[in-house]
Amino acid sequence: MDQSAKNLLDIHFATGRTKCLTYLAGLSPASLLHPMGRGTGVSIMDEYGEQYLDFNGGAQLPFGHRDADVANMALVQLQEHTWFGDYGDYQDRLVADYAALLSDRFPQKNGPPLKVMFTPSVYEARMTAAQICICPPSQGGYFLSLLTPEGIPREGGEVQDEVHRARAQRLKIIADELDTGFGRTGSFCLFEQYVTPDVILLGSAGTGGLPCNAVLAPGPLFETESFGQLIQHIAPTPNPIACAVGNAIVPRINESLLAQVRNVAGTLAMDLATVCEQFSDVLHSTPGVGLIRTIKLNAPSRAEDFRRRCRHAGLLIQPNLRLSPPLTVTAQQVRIAVDAVAAACIDMEEVVL
After folding, report:
1. What average pLDDT is seen over the chain?
2. What is the pTM (predicted TM-score) of this model?
């Protein structure tokens, strides 16, 4: 790109930045607002033509950007209908298909399959889970998170002791998989490695980032008085387009893919550990599980600076320095991403010197 073309793009993007800062709440002049363009798989290209590995959006995009099956399913549904009306008034087969796909992942040894309620927001999903657990003799629900706030997987014995204490208090166990579900940890849900919960929360990764969270629980929990009171204020809102996308995503998260995730995750963990040893003056650990890893700096106040240096090296990561690539990331792409982390560490060292 010649300088004159770049100057024109600079003017165009400066105008767009001004519009974002003027009309969008929650932004400040310090906001990055990098002009991103079109994505394909694990990669994304900005509007200057620079290409990056996207280890940011994978948390909501199990198969990366512009996956053909996902895009086709969404397009077909857009051409059919996007909404039918009030929940329960109309039969929408594909919504039931998505619910069945999720429920069938957790077969019940005794009794009917788990029922599913869809909500547009994480807040409503958690509130629903808490409310349906208020049913005698249960005293309520206990939200079980299997990762620490730092993204470190908790020890199985610790989790099981916590569950035992909660059950002793007559609390139902709510497995919060809003951030860890749909294969990111090497199993469909992380709790499967530890416990059997009463209620399961799944996020919008199953619908490619389209807002559709799921609450899974035995049918009787959705027939309680507390749920009846809740439903007067929160109507289940299964988005047909999101559910159509979910029907394209969930069947592909099979044991073959999960085995691939575990294998590539091992490469990611090992290579990041090597970087930690080489640049111990910059970072001290990269905790996580599966394809969820968080970079822990010795100087946390420099997180945004480190993130910017990763971007300059061709890698996009989350503001909390978490790496979340799509499930389809390859070992080679992981190595390139880790090289970018190492390059950012070198830059940080040079600044200190």
Report:
1. 89
2. 0.90
